[in-house]
Amino acid sequence: MTRTLYDLALADEAVRPSPYCWLVKFALLHKGLKFETRAVGFADKAKYPDPAYGKVPVLIDDGVMVKDSPVILEHLDRKYRERPLAATAGERASAAFYGAWLASAIYPALGPLIMLPLIAAAASEDRDYIRRTREARFGKTLEEYANVPDAAQRLESALAALAAPLGAYDFLGGREANLCDYVVMSPLMWRRSATSAELYETPKPVAAWQERMLDLFGGYARAAKRA
Ligand SMILES: N[C@@H](CCC(=O)N[C@@H](CS)C(=O)NCC(=O)O)C(=O)O
What we know:
The protein is 56% helix and 8% strand. Helix 3 packs parallel to helix 8. The chain has 227 residues and is an alpha+beta fold. It binds glutathione. Glutathione binds next to helix 1.
């Protein structure tokens, strides 16, 4: 049985920023499933397991190709019943809430803060591709996109909402990490991988939780290389 996760890399192949790939890595680790990762750059789609799809994460699970992080998570929970990522409908509903909150409150503030450091750390052959695709997506230059003077404050106040659950519990999942923790930690691994710069101040209970998340699974996330 082999499991290979195709994972996005920056100029240094050991630096893996993709939040969706992080979500799948956390899911595999949570379930105790062994896997290897294979680095791909942004632009060279011929190296992707499905060049027409052109995205990662893609998991090859014992010869079966599974694409798209929510589909991969569902596949893992269906195939490997032990240690469910979300054990109840209530946990799945909470994870859906955190995902929507990331989209509305975290990514719009975090994206502008890390886009320029991220492109600077990307392989030289990927930089034009990243600029072209992201500028088309945002409808503005990356410099305009990055110019959000209050992005750090916005991020800090969005993260402060996590102090409510994390003031009372070690994890968003309660006593142990579950899908909610992995969903929220994934963009923070994007940020952590892209740059070591202090971009904003993390509220205390959130910083303490982040340290616990970095320590899980023998410190897998803490050991991940940063640009
Ligand atoms: N809905 C997909 C999104 C995957 C996605 O957008 N992946 C990005 C990396 S975070 C990617 O492959 N980018 C390659 C590109 O920009 O061409 C998922 O959740 O897996």
